């Protein structure tokens, strides 16, 4: 899905991040962004703390961040090759992890929830407001992946289509 003016970022296999003992390596993921989006260093002090694996931003258009969290924080009886549907239905999943992403309860903020499937893996796609944010969630290995694309009110209005395209491009490889 590389269209003109866009590029695909793929998480390098050897990028560090594993968050402690007993972790399998992070299964790589990929997504597409318009030219002009750049990787931003992740600070351990970030909201979301150690679980933010990656940040990208464009000062004009918006920003994104990827959270990679242990699935067992959300459900106990999950295999080592977790599927998002084992964690629960979309409404249960957004209720459980949405507050980690936006810092508050998501009740009444979920504008839409959809399920997409790519290469046999299900992805839950949410749009929330306020704050303006797209959240794409899936599971792989023993981790939950949350791909979050957000922007200010003005960025949202001006770049909504691109931000949605970024959100929908997320894949665990």
TrEMBL record:
An example molecular function term from Gene Ontology annotations: calcium ion binding
Ranges for domain PsbP C-terminal: 29-172
Pfam family, one: PsbP
Primary location class: plastid
Location in or out of the cell: Plastid, Chloroplast thylakoid membrane
GO aspect biological process, one term: photosynthesis
Classification via InterPro entries: Mog1/PsbP_a/b/a-sand, PsbP_C
SUPFAM superfamilies: Mog1p/PsbP-like
Domain of life: Eukaryota
Record's protein name: PsbP domain-containing protein 4, chloroplastic-like isoform X4
Gene: LOC113714850
């Amino acid at each position: 899905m590389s269209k003109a003016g866009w590029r695909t970022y793929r998480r390098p296999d050897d990028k560090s991040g594993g968050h402690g003992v007993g972790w399998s390596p992070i299964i790589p993921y990929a997504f597409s962004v318009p030219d002009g989006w750049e990787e931003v260093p992740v600070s351990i002090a970030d909201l979301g703390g150690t679980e933010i694996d990656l940040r990208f931003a464009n000062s004009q258009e918006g920003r994104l961040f990827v959270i990679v969290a242990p699935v067992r924080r959300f459900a106990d009886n999950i295999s080592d090759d977790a599927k998002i549907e084992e964690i629960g239905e979309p409404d249960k999943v957004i209720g459980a992890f949405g507050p980690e992403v936006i810092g508050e309860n998501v009740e009444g903020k979920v504008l839409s929830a959809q399920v997409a499937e790519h290469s046999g893996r299900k992805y839950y796609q949410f749009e929330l407001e306020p704050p303006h944010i797209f959240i794409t969630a899936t599971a792989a290995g023993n981790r939950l992946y949350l791909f979050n694309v957000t922007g200010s009110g003005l960025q949202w209005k001006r770049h909504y289509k691109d931000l949605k395209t970024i959100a929908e491009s997320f894949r665990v490889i």
